[in-house]
């Protein structure tokens, strides 16, 4: 039996997600694991629910836009003065460490630079949804580790885009293309700076408009309108929606800090049911059977990504002389992998489709390995966040 009534589906998903989330929480696991389990049961396990690509895309992009907006709201002038430089340094070091370790690890096994570069660049991405939801789920205080984690998962997307676009350009050269300045430099710069400009522009408009509205309902409508317009325009212009919404939030909070705090509090108040739906949808699209077929390359990828994220975060934290608990636990909070990584894997298939069977095989391999390992990282990632903030003493209910 397949449920086609979307209203009934959302009701069932929220009810099951809430109950199972509470159960997993009792076992000291993040509720996100429960939401994903519900999705797997409704989708791959019993085939009760089927969503189209269009429906999934709307849910994913809307949720990521909201989360990016919240992340942007953490980039206040005060935060940037205290932790901005440290966050940037740690982000760059852990990103390139992850890229190099995955690329070399996969190459040593496969002796194939194409798949090594592709997996290395995709593995850099950290899932903002899983990370921020885990912080929210365990009621993390706004301590240094939580703030640093929030900043890095936002900045991580920009670095990932740069590395991925350069990596796929190199793969095309290996497959026979000529080296192009446009593909290596100009394209990633347009995608990143275009997203930044879009976010700042909409942020200025939202800040001006915010001065003229009062009441929670009006504030919520204004906030959602700004976020949805930002996500929609970013899609049309082929820019990073996450980066655009992040800069929307950052611009807004710094132009009207007092009003902005009220806006962000109201937006955060609607996140719990959205998180439940988002991670149930993630569970619907995960295929546990891929875990069996991903093989040794998938296991190498998992090991190398964990090593890169944790090792890179440790080295970066050491260099900026961060507190000892940041050095020890930050890497554990950066393990989530989801929508951004899967999206990049799908992009690989499209980008390399013109290269015949070789390109098709690379695309299929990238999608299979990333989809399979996402099952693993979407379970251990939120658990890593919970453990890290707990050890740092930033969990309110512990």
Main beta sheet: none
> Helix and strand string, N-terminal first?
HHHHHHHHHHHHHHHHH
CATH level-3 fold name: Na+/H+ antiporter like fold
The number of helical elements comes to 17
Q: What is the terminal-to-terminal distance?
A: 42 Å
Number of strands: 0
Strand-helix topology:
Blueprint: H1 6-26, H2 31-45, H3 53-72, H4 77-110, H5 113-122, H6 128-137, H7 144-174, H8 181-210, H9 216-236, H10 241-255, H11 257-269, H12 271-285, H13 289-293, H14 295-319, H15 324-329, H16 339-351, H17 356-391
Please describe what this structure looks like.
The structure is a single chain. The chain has helices at residues 6-26, 31-45, 53-72, 77-110, 113-122, 128-137, 144-174, 181-210, 216-236, 241-255, 257-269, 271-285, 289-293, 295-319, 324-329, 339-351, 356-391. The protein has one domain (6-391): Na+/H+ antiporter like fold. α1 (6-26) crosses α2, α4 packs antiparallel against α14 and α5 (113-122) packs parallel to α17. The mean pLDDT is 82. The chain has 398 residues and is mainly α. It contains 17 helices and no strands. The chain is globular, with a radius of gyration of 20 Å.
């Amino acid at each position: 039996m397949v449920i086609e009534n979307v209203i009934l589906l959302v009701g069932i998903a929220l009810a099951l997600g809430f109950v199972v989330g509470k159960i997993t929480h009792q076992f000291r696991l993040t509720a996100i694991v429960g939401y994903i389990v519900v999705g797997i049961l409704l989708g791959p396990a019993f085939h009760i629910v089927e969503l189209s690509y269009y429906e999934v895309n709307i849910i994913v992009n809307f949720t990521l836009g909201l989360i990016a907006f919240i992340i942007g709201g953490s980039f206040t002038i005060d935060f940037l003065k205290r932790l901005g430089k440290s966050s940037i340094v740690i982000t760059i070091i852990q990103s390139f460490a992850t890229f190099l370790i995955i690329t070399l690890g996969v190459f040593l096994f496969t002796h194939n630079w194409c798949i090594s570069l592709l997996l290395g660049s995709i593995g850099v991405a950290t899932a903002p949804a899983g990370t921020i939801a885990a912080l929210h789920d365990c009621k993390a205080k706004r301590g240094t580790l939580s703030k640093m984690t929030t900043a890095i998962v936002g900045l991580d997307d920009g670095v990932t885009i740069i590395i991925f676009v350069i990596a796929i350009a190199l793969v095309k050269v290996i497959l026979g293309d000529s080296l192009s300045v446009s593909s290596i430099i100009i394209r990633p710069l347009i995608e990143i700076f275009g997203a930044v400009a879009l976010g700042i522009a909409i942020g200025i408009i939202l800040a001006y408009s915010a001065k003229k509205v009062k009441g929670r309902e009006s504030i919520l409508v204004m906030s959602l309108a700004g976020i949805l317009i930002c996500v929609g325009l970013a899609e049309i212009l082929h820019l990073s929606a996450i980066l655009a919404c992040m800069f929307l939030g950052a611009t807004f909070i710094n132009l009207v800090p007092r009003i902005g705090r009220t806006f962000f509090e109201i937006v955060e108040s609607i996140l719990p049911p959205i998180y439940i739906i988002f991670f149930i949808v993630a569970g619907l699209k995960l295929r546990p059977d891929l875990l069996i077929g991903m093989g040794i390359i998938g296991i190498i990828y998992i090991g190398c990504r964990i090593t890169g994220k944790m090792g890179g975060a440790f080295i970066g934290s050491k260099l900026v002389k961060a507190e000892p608990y940041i050095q020890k636990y930050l890497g554990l909070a950066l393990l989530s992998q989801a929508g951004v990584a899967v999206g990049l894997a799908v992009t690989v298939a499209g980008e390399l489709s013109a290269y015949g069977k070789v390109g098709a095989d690379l695309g299929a391999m990238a999608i299979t390995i990333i989809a399979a390992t996402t099952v693993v990282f979407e379970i251990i990632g939120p658990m890593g966040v919970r453990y890290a903030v707990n050890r740092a003493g930033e969990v309110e209910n512990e």
